[in-house]
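User: I'm new to structure prediction. If I give you an amino acid sequence, what do you actually give back? Let's try with this one:
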Amino acid sequence: MQAFIEQYVPNRNVIVPPEEIRKLCSYDFPGNVRELRNIIERSLILQEGNYIYPSKLVNSEMMSEKAQTDGIKDSGATFIEQGVKQKWILPEIEKQYILAAFENQNKNIAHTAAFLGISLSTLKRKLRDFGVR
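Assistant: Good question. You get back a string of structure tokens that encode the predicted 3D arrangement of the chain. For your 133 residues, that looks like this:
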């Protein structure tokens, strides 16, 4: 966590209180390290002062993400099973996942890129390659 802080604001003295670290450790981080990095980056942008409270972003995102993904979690196994049955190769799985995320995010490119943990330019290039944009 401190490495991300130093990467984004090397000249700013930023402190994450110990209770914040405990809260973050209890969160599952389905997006893995990218999700933690994004939350730290957004905390640095949105919160002023020497102390940041990333769990405030996690809690609000967890609620909205949970509401958005409840219907998708059940279909996750179906998606994987479909890929195995149709013998998709990895690029096809990536394509189908990106397109499903794009639909799930109401075709909002910025939200989809953030959801996937990739840059906006990468998503635009992939969508163009898929013939979507």
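You can read the tokens as a compact description of the fold. Here is one thing that stands out. Residues 88-133 form a domain with the Arc Repressor Mutant, subunit A fold (CATH 1.10.10).
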